[in-house]
Amino acid sequence: MNLIQTFITKNDCYKAGRTIVPKGIMVHSTATPGVMAKDWFSRWNKPGLEVPVHAFVDDQFVCQHLPWNHRAWHCGDAANNTHIAFELCEPTDWKTNRTYALAAYRNGVELAAALCRKYGLNEKAIISHAEGYRQGIASNHGDPDHWWRYFGLTMAGFRADVAAALSGGQGAAPALPENRPQLSEGSEGAAVTALQRRLNQLRIALALAFEPLAEDGIFGPRTKEAVRAFQSARGLAADGIVGPKTWAALAVSYGDVDQNGKVNAADALRILQSAVGKRTLSESERAAADLNGDGSANAADALGVLREAVKGP
Ligand SMILES: [Zn+2]
Questions:
Q1: Which residues 6+ apart lie within 8 Å of 263 measured at CB?
Q2: SS3 labels along 115-143
Q3: Are strands 24-29 and 83-88 parallel, antiparallel or unpaired?
Q4: Which residue in 51, 89, 147, 166 has the most C-beta neighbors within 10 A?
Q5: Residue 69 belongs to what domain range?
Q6: How many domains does the chain have?
Q7: pLDDT recorded at residue 173
Q8: Are 223 and 196 in contact (CB under 8 A)?
Q9: Residue 13 buriedness (CB in 10 A; 0-12 / 13-18 / 19+)
């Protein structure tokens, strides 16, 4: 998350100078295609406007315009007194640009997690503008759901991703099981947990349309749907059964940083280059690179990639 702090000191809301004790976070999206996070400062840093939020978020930047505990005017109702608000910026091709949507979503998750830490909140305190309306504390808008629905993104998923970020990532992920048993609905055990964790990690990397799975080692209907989504994305028969081909595809997708369909030393090299600051990984590259799921791509992941490379698909 790349935070740029420039306060809109000429705006009436800034000058009003009222503060709040943040009790929650409200997620908006701009419904203004093509106007990115950095573009909003000049639009709002002037008097006579009554609609500021705390920050704008796009695929690259978080631009903060008000102190987080400043009372913003973002939702036309009671939540102005309690909620920190940020807007996710929508790109020109907002209905089809999945890569952008996921990158902005990811930045939103990071920002929300940081704000939860700062104000002692948890993911349950996060709502969308649309949810705020349904709770009677915000005006009638449908954001950001009206946009996210094109990519299978939901507020439930957003909260789950913030919860994962707050728990410090999901810890070191187990490698794929050595024996890679066939798994299907009704299977249980450590191999299922490893499968669920890997599907959760691949969800963002491959833009798979399912909500994060509980990593409980129980292969239920939701795990089956997630397997089917993965199989479709990888051109396999979407039967929801994890056999040798699906295991192989899981191994390749995960660690295939350059997304050329192979896991090899080039992927490990990319990870090491990013670890020493010589390369910036895109959002999907980073998700594929974080082999052990600890939230960063580093030498441990590069080693894991080399192990997968030796094992072959
Ligand atoms: Zn809104």
A1: 251, 252, 255, 256, 305, 308, 309, 313
A2: HHHHHCCCHHHEEEHHHHHHCCCCCCCCC
A3: parallel
A4: 89
A5: 3-166
A6: 2
A7: 44
A8: yes
A9: buried
Q: How close is the Cα of 136 to the center of ligand 1, in Å?
A: 14
Distance 290 CA to ligand 1 centre (A): 33
Q: In this structure, are 150 and 101 located in the same domain?
A: yes
Q: What is the CA(202)–ligand 1 centre distance, in A?
A: 29
Residues of the chain with confidence (pLDDT) below 50: 170-174
> Is the residue at 181 inside a domain?
no
CATH of the domain at 287: 1.10.101.10
Strands of 216-304, DSSP E: none
Residues 14 and 162 in one domain: yes
Single-letter residue type at 44: W
- Residue 120 Cα to ligand 1 middle (Å): 24
Residue with tokens 């709002």: 44
Alpha-carbon distances, residue 72 vs 13, 21, 50 (angstroms): 7, 12, 9
**pTM score:** 0.64
